[in-house]
Amino acid sequence: MTYFTFNQSLKPKTIIMWNFDNHDQISVLCSKIKIPVLSANCYDPLDPIGNIAVTYDIVRWTEDGYQARITIQNHYQYRHIEKPGWQLGWAWAASEVIWSMSGAFATQQGNCSNFKSEIPHCCKKDPIIVDLAPEAPPEKRSDGCCHGGYLAASAINPSNSFASFEMKVGNLRGNYTAHRPLNLTLMAPGPGYTCDEFVDTDPTTSSVIEGQRQEQVIRTWKSTCTYSTFLANKSPTCCVSLSTFYNPEVTPCRLCSCGCKLADKEAKSCIGLVTKQNSLLLLQCTDHMCPLRVHWHIKKNYRYHWRVKLTISNYNLRKNYSNWNVVVQHPGFSHQATVFSFNNTMLPTVGVPDEVALFWGLDFYNDALLQAEETQVGSVTTEILLRKDMSSFTLSNGWAFPRRVYFNGENCEMPLPQIFPMLPNGYSNVKPCSSHLSVLLLIYLTYETLNFWS
């Protein structure tokens, strides 16, 4: 069995192919390999059609321009945009200005000295637009706005996976030939997204009068923005550790998975670099120096089921993770699974040999992964009961461990298969006892014990 993962610390960009049958590792360059569902830019194969779509609608003409509605739709299944949120930018093709806005605002007004009576909201050639806060007053709001820049993942909360705002564009000076904006950019909130140029498409339509009438806008432009981890991060942000009930040894995160700690052995806190926003985070000092760790523990082996404990730990001393999610690729999810303390759903994929499960927190219970303290980490955990496929289930050769793990859409560094917890000699041939045999064995041992003491 072979699967693929990425090593962001290697230059140039490298795909790691693991073979679970013999623990072989093959490294190949992204630019050299041709794999279905993996593009040359190495976008996520677990969400191959994920993107963020930007729709620019011209709703009606005005005296010197037009009224526009812009919609940002997150089609990524599990990659959300967290606060401080999205920033949308472009360059005007002519001398346009923004007279007014609702549902969002431009971060800079620019030089509006040429306007004497009425001052535009923004005169910059390259405006940057951001979302309003949820507590924005009614007169500033529009439909679909005011989430503070947050866009939910489409598989988790589709009703909050889009944002919309309106603006009055002018200074076209009687020329009713609108020019599409150029050089679209999306920061969410850091780098990583690349946007196509706006292209003409069929005008957007909407239903009115309780669906009895269809109305369409004057003109529609659309752009698609896609995310690349390699453009966003210079180093990983999470790692995976493993343990089992049958082996006392814990397979830790790989040494220096996300960086190396300070030489000072007595230090309790270390500086870790999170390159998505190019900012420094204060972390607990660890051998892996990752802000986040995902731990997979094989807890029990029953006759028809097996049980796993999944724990996500936060080593940030000053950062909480709200609306977190974890993706796990594992063939065991092809059969019924019961998740006790997280929300979960199965993700549709294309060309991926194993099933992919998405987990996220329960509202008002564990949907926030709290920051660490000096003596303990913040964590959330659940147990998962999986039904066995008797034709494929095995505890041998690392089958029971994940193939790939993502936290908030970022690939987590996996341990080398050579150091996975191994079965004791001969254990792979031992079948789990049924409940009836366990009861009989308990009765027999009790009987022998009583005879011994009598």
Automatic annotation (TrEMBL):
Sequence ranges assigned to domain COBRA C-terminal in this UniProt record: 237-270, 281-420
InterPro entries: COB_C (IPR056900), COBRA_pln (IPR006918)
GO biological processes: cellulose microfibril organization; plant-type cell wall cellulose biosynthetic process
Protein's membrane topology: Lipid-anchor; GPI-anchor
Location of the protein in the cell: Cell membrane
Keywords: Glycoprotein, GPI-anchor, Lipoprotein, Membrane, Signal
Domain of life according to the entry: Eukaryota
Main location: membrane
GO cellular component entries: plasma membrane; side of membrane
The family this protein is said to belong to: Belongs to the COBRA family.
Protein's recorded name: COBRA-like protein
